[in-house]
Structure formats: C-alpha cells, structure tokens
Design goal:
It comes from Parazoarcus communis SWub3 = DSM 12120. By secondary structure, the protein is an alpha/beta fold. It is about 45% helix and about 15% strand. It has 17 helices and nine strands. It is globular and about 70 Å long.
Length: about 375
C-alpha cells in the first residue's frame, strides 16, 4: 500500500496547515488518475478534517506522550508512527510535515520510494561542513566513539520521510539513537532528522530528495500561514470543489513583495518623516500593496507585524513610541486610506493600546 501520512496535534494553526497540505495533495492527484494512494491523518482532533476524503485515526494524549518518551521529545513521534505503519516489506509510506503544499502529484514522491533508498525533503551539506554547529559540537565525539557519523555524512531535512517496509529497521535505529543522544544534544530540535541521517548512513541507504514536488515553508511561516488561512476561509467547507481546486495553484511559494518601482516610491514618500520612523512606515506600506492575487493580499498584516518586530530588534526604545507616532498628523497622512486597517490590526494585537512612554506590553511572535 502507498500511504501518505500526517501527524497533527496541538494548536489550530497546525491543523490549518495540514488541511491545506492535504487539499493540495488531492488536487495534484488529479493529474495522475491511476495513482493508488491512501491519505491518513493521525490526530488529536478529527473535526477539522471532516470535509476531506481521508482516513482519520484519533490519537490520545497518552499515546502521544508514549511516542515522545522517554525525554518528552515531540519529533520522536514521527519515527514511531512511521515505523508502525510499515508492517509489510512491500508497504510504502511517506510521512510529510504539515507546513507543506504540493506542486506535483504525490505519486511523484512514491516513485522515489524503493528498497535501499530513503526519501527526504532535501539533502543538506556534509556533517563536517559546520564544526561550529550545535549538533557537531555536542555529538561529534560521542559519534566518533561509536564509529558513526563521519564528517562526509550527508545531512537531510525530514519535512518528508519516505521508506518502504523492507527498510523499517532504519527507523528502529533512529529511535534508538534519538533516545541515547538526546541528553547530549543540548535541546537541539533538529536531533530527529540528524539521527535519521546517521541511521541511513549506517545502513547504507542512498538518499533521494523532493524539493520540486512540494514546498516546505519551514522558513517565513507567517507569510504562508496567512495564505493558507485565506484559502481555508474561502474554501474550508468545500475543499474539493472545482472553485477550491482552481485556487490551489494561486497559493504560491513566492514571498509577496511590492515591485521595485513601488518600493522606491514608498522610500521617497517616507522621507518626510523623522529618520527614526522611516523604515517602520515603509514596511507598513509594503503590506498595503494591492496584489492581484487575493492570497498574496492576505499577507498584508504579516508585513505590519514584521514592521513592529523589526523596529523592536532595531531600536527597542523607539518601539515604545509607536502609539504616539500614530497620533502624529504627518504619520497618519502618509498612511492615508490604509490607516484604519493598520490601526485596527495593530490595536487587535495590543500594540496601539500601550502607554507610548512605558515598556512595550506586546510581542509579535
């Protein structure tokens, strides 16, 4: 059996990510009508997936805790769940993170899953390329003592893990290494994909990647989550309808940014402001650009929140003055008709309600 597997638990945003990823998988599957792929969701909350033609397997908090044991390491659950699904030698399972969406049919992933080969999202550099990296500093001596993890060992991104049942012992080994090395890894959250690389290297498995087949937005999540939420707001009740399918390709992997000419014009316009306010105002206006793509337009508030974040990092004392700036005529005039939307959003995040002369009370994650 070919099985596309998701593990989803916790905050609503992860369920939204998974919902859209599955919808994109189903849409792209239409290009390979003969594909025989089952989609299964292991989750603590089945309700969000009721409108999707997938198999739901409820997972209790006790089960999740057992998957995270013995160190409470959440990413350990990926390897445990995948191992449980690889019962027969001919089984092929692809476990995929929620923060993904498909550019091509999921069948293209299964075409790369074969005995002796591990499918990952991306193949990274060599283990010895970054001697300053946390997992090199903390684990190199430990691995060397075990005769594992040479400097030439390729690293990988585990946003996708694809294996056939005949190679399930690799997961048994990765779980074993995870449990043994966790106390030495100083909390490195990438330990899960690191030990998978070590186990695959030890077993002599070749690596295959799939960066063109899916987009894994582990970076700039705020942008892509805004696009996903906009799509769900529009199509969540009928995710497989013709209208929903037509909109899937419009949720692109591009970071929406105004054209260069627009950015130059904004830079010139903000010259009327004091120098301390200019970059902040520019980034606010970047979020107001009228993209033709509605899902890119949905990212506007992310720009506004990023403007606050950047100001706090650049000059924390100035960030305390944001509320006061929004009372200045020149600043308000510059924002023009966009002012009510920006004010309403920042006020909803507690930014404009704080005392302009007191330490900032809100932090934009």
């Amino acid at each position: 059996m070919n099985r596309l597997l998701y593990i989803v638990y916790g905050a609503e945003t992860y369920h939204q990510e998974a919902f859209f990823s599955i919808a994109s998988a189903l849409t792209r599957l239409r290009s390979t009508p003969g594909a025989d792929i089952a989609i299964e969701v292991l989750t603590d909350n089945p309700a969000p997936y009721a409108a999707l033609p997938v198999t739901i397997t409820p997972v209790s908090s006790q089960t999740l805790q057992s998957w995270w044991a013995p160190h409470g390491y959440h990413f350990r659950a990926k390897h445990v769940a995948l191992l449980q699904r690889l019962q027969g030698d001919e089984d092929r399972v692809v476990l995929i993170d929620t923060d993904t969406f498909f550019h091509q049919s999921p069948q293209t992933l299964f075409d790369k899953v074969r005995q002796g080969q591990l499918l990952c999202n991306r193949i990274g550099g060599r283990y010895g390329d970054r001697p300053d990296a946390l997992l090199y500093r903390t684990l190199s001596a430990e691995l060397q003592a075990r005769g594992l993890g040479g400097k030439e060992m390729p690293l990988l991104n585990s946003g996708v893990i694809g294996l056939c049942g005949a190679d399930r012992s690799v997961l048994e080994r990765s779980i074993e290494l995870m449990d043994e090395l966790f106390p030495h890894a100083q909390g490195a959250y990438t330990l899960e994909e690191f030990v998978l690389a070590v186990a695959a290297d030890q077993a002599g498995l070749s690596l295959e990647e799939c960066p063109d087949e899916i987009h894994h937005y582990w970076s700039r999540k705020d942008i892509f989550r805004a696009k996903v939420k906009a799509w769900i707001a529009k199509h969540g009740s009928a995710p497989c309808s013709d209208a929903a399918v037509a909109d899937i390709p419009r949720v692109t992997d591009a970071l929406p940014r105004p054209p260069q000419a627009t950015r130059l014009m904004i830079k010139l316009r903000t010259c009327i402001l004091p120098s301390t306010q200019r970059q902040f105002a520019r980034e606010l206006l970047y979020g107001c650009y009228p993209y033709s793509n509605e899902f890119d337009r949905a990212c506007g508030p992310v720009w506004w929140e990023k403007a606050v974040n950047n100001l706090e990092q650049r000059a924390k004392n100035e960030a305390h003055e944001i509320a006061a700036w929004f009372q200045q005529d020149r600043f308000r005039h510059l924002l023009g008709g966009h002012l009510p939307m920006i004010e309403a959003h920042l006020r909803s995040r507690g930014i404009l309600d704080q005392n302009p002369h007191a330490p900032a009370a809100a932090h934009i994650p």
